[in-house]
Amino acid sequence: MERVQLNGADVAYDVRGSGTPVVFIHGAILSDGFVPAIEQTAIAENFQIVHYRRRGYAGSSRAAAGMTMQEWADDSIALLNHLGIASAHVAGHSFGAGIALQMAIDAPGRVRKLALLEPPLGSLVASGGQFAQWMATVREIYDSGDKITATDMVLAGAYGPDYRRFTDGALPAGAFERAVSDIDTYFQVELGAMLRWDITTEGLKDIRHSVLSMRGSDTLPVFLEGADLLQQWIPEIDTVSIPCASHDLPGRNPAAVATGLVEFFTT
């Protein structure tokens, strides 16, 4: 990956292919979570792929405590500026989908179409409180210093107990070990950013982009309810269910995700 200074942070990124640019924003914990979908032939042959590692992940600079969704969105916009890209399709997964959503709100002219794969809308849905209580229990394990167990609990809870079958087989080698190394970003920065995120249903109603909402058929209630909320409030949106997938839908069923993205971005 190449490196660039964005808003005072050193960020690793990769650009490949040709055609209309698509920015892929990865989710929490697994910085390579989008890789299986990005590497599908349908994606590689149709778009210029912009894939970067957010602050706090892999070789990029650490994320500062108190960082907001708006600041992460600013990094994405700064990367487009660096690459000389006036506007791009944007696809985000999990926490990255929250960033993509914020990017569309803050800089609507920079986003062509918007693909959201299960953004964290816990503050707006009924099951958000239950999800937060479970996460508080996992936080106790993390605070005790057991990062391996905490990482395992978060991934198993969000992706299913058999998640290692997919992370070890579909993601680049060492994905779990990188997740353990990056888990501080999740607990020390991202959870706080989600709690402080000022997203509202009125804000969703103001989005005028064409939006694709993807959700796993077997995902958690908090993400199913989040997809229903997006469908209710965003004016121009289509929702698709990715079969045999949980919250790790880009890794568990990358072909279906890639097909859906290509159809959406090319029509």
TrEMBL record:
Domain of life, per lineage: Bacteria
Sequence ranges assigned to domain AB hydrolase-1 in this UniProt record: 21-120
Pfam families: Abhydrolase_1
InterPro entries named among the record's database cross-references: AB_hydrolase (IPR050471), AB_hydrolase_1 (IPR000073), AB_hydrolase_fold (IPR029058)
Coiled-coil ranges from the UniProt annotation: none
Database matches in Gene3D superfamilies: alpha/beta hydrolase (3.40.50.1820)
Alphabetized PANTHER family for the sequence: BLL5160 PROTEIN, HYDROLASE, ALPHA/BETA FOLD FAMILY PROTEIN
Protein name (database record): Pimeloyl-ACP methyl ester carboxylesterase
Taxonomic placement: Bacteria, Pseudomonadati, Pseudomonadota, Betaproteobacteria, Burkholderiales
